[in-house]
Amino acid sequence: MEDFTTLTTDVLVIGAGGAGLRAAIEAAASGARVDIVCKSLLGKAHTVMAEGGIAAALGNVDSEDNWQVHFQDTMRGGQMINNWRMAQLHAQESPDRVYELETYGALFDRTPDGRVMQRAFGAHTYKRLCHVGDRTGLEMIRSLQDRVVQLGITVHMEWTLTRLLKEGERVVGAFGYNRVDGSFVAFRAKAVILATGGWGRIYKVTSNSWEGTGDGVGMGFEAGAEVLDPEMVQFHPTGMVWPPGVRGILVTEAVRGEGGYLKNSENKRFMLEYDPKKKELSSRDVVARSIYKEVEAGRGTPHGGAWLDVTHLGAETIKKKLPSMYEQFLRLADIDITKASMEVAPTIHYAMGGLRVEPETGETTLPGLFAAGEVAAGLHGSNRLGGNSLSDLLVFGRRAGGAAGAYARNIRLGRLDERLINQEQQTLLLPFSGEGTENPYLLQQALQQAMQDGAGLARDEKGLKGCLNTVLELRQRAARIHAPGSRRYNPGWHTARDLRFMLTIAECIVRAAIERRESRGAHWRLDYLEKDPALGKVNFIAYSDAGTVKLKQRPVPQMPPELAGLFDDAASPGALKSSSTAAPEAKRIPA
Ligand SMILES: Cc1cc2nc3c(=O)[nH]c(=O)nc-3n(C[C@H](O)[C@H](O)[C@H](O)COP(=O)(O)OP(=O)(O)OC[C@H]3O[C@@H](n4cnc5c(N)ncnc54)[C@H](O)[C@@H]3O)c2cc1C
Question: Does residue 162 share a domain with residue 203?
Fold first, then answer.
């Protein structure tokens, strides 16, 4: 066995995005010693890229807003396969989490009378997104990071953890490598929190950065945790299209929230037809499909998308409300959006699926292992509403951190199993020592293309089965991967391990997508266009059976009557009108 360093802590947090930082703060507040590990530098992560805002029913702009309406919007957006308890906690606790962020130093945009400003966003009944221009994630990460530094929490940057270590069924640590010099490290911890974000990089066209390879879900799956609804992958309607080098980069929904119009090649606002009520602010799945249909009907833009126009808002508003978008298009596409339309098309953006967790604590199906943020699943059902991720990170990051801290108080450190460490070292070193000749980048590209083509926005049985065959073939080829060079600064070597996670998750996505023979939320089956009421009552679970991906169904948790009463159709959620993809109007109830 190669040498490795062993570090000991109470709570190990893997990931330094919004969920990881908020979890670490809470675990530290409960008296635990906390260590955070992240693949890149503190202050990076996807959270910093978030633009549009944080959804919380403060009622500052629309005073009728309250947690119940937010809860209904979230459930309806997810087409009722969400975990109702997570949606309830999220809607109830988001306002406090936003105000708390201001106590850490965040400063949101203000209403004229000095309250936190809120903007409209897709499928939210009221103006609900608290924001800082279109740089909300930056403000959020900056203030959380300041708090982490104040609390003296140790952050290990540029380390990748790749294997959860168990004693029996209990997770007692994790193993991985330093990205700079390739040295190995083992963490011994009383509790582990996964906050590793999503898996957008499994696809070719995505808004996600290189970090979004699904490591946490991969590690959890390999250790025996359950993966919920992996087939639910969000296609954000508006990513950049041109020039090719920027394809997929996000064009925030705030552009439509501030009043932007989507138009086809005939200069028509086509959303007026697809969803006359909510128009451009329909839910993301509806808008993404509408753009797809316009392109299919021959009314797309030159590079296969739609036009997004804000010129009618005036240059001053655009530069004040959407400064990042203004700069993004000017710098990357040489387009001044105060004078010309943006060309946009759907881009893979968010994983609604992820590790199955307990709503109150974020505990996964493995003792000692907690998860929060995009790596966890349940809150968003089959489609996430914009802004609901940032509030998810705060609400469930705090809950997971508190629960992990409490768990750590009452348990001893576990024993690290050298056999598991040895196995992981062999897996990591295989690209140097094996006989293989497969190039990690080429395999990754082949996977991304296969997923884009076969498990993309519009799916059918034939495409999905073809995609599954490719994924299985790539899994075999990945066993013969070769990375030239040494362990120092070697991204090819890093990609070799990332790829294993990506392939496993891709298989989970495709197998579940084949089995969900209906259209629901982000999952659009051209061969099953309607909702199936029976499938509206189940979530799919992917799990490892001696390393093989297996699927099972689990009943969607039943809402208590007082919450079910908020929906006319909750008694048979699968029967939500399938002819209309738009969410029905939320029921108004007193605060
Ligand atoms: C461009 C863009 C704009 C968005 N805008 C909004 C918005 O306006 N509102 C909204 O609600 N949502 C938005 N989202 C979604 C939201 O930003 C993400 O869902 C959210 O930030 C995810 O946070 P997280 O803490 O779960 O993970 P991330 O922020 O992705 O952080 C993951 C962390 O885990 C670390 N990590 C990963 N793997 C490993 C490993 N193996 N070992 C060690 N560390 C690891 C990473 O280094 C990183 O620190 C946007 C997303 C994008 C990409």
Answer: yes
Identify the domain containing residue 330 by its residue range: 236-348
Lowest-pLDDT choice from 213-217, 275-279, 280-284, 336-340: 280-284
Report residue 450 as tokens. Answer: 């296969």
Task: Look at the chain and report how many structural domains it folds into.
Answer: 3
Ligand 1 closest atom vs CA 42: 49
pLDDT at 101 over 50: yes
Residue among 227, 211, 230, 224 at smallest CA distance from 164: 224
Ligand 1 contact via 220 beta carbon (within 6 Å) = no
pLDDT per position as a tens digit, 287-341: 999 999 999 999 999 999 999 999 999 999 999 999 999 999 999 999 999 999 9
Residue 569 has pLDDT above 80, yes or no: no
* pLDDT band at residue 572 using 50, 70 and 90 as cut-offs: very low
Instruction: Judge residue 7's burial from the number of C-beta atoms within 10 Å of its C-beta, 0-12 exposed, 13-18 middle, 19 or more buried.
Output: middle
Q: Which of 90, 163, 256, 511 is catalytic?
A: 256
- Cβ(23)–Cβ(398) under 8 Å? yes
Active-site pick, 236, 398, 477, 500: 236
The CATH code of the domain that includes 185 is 3.50.50.60
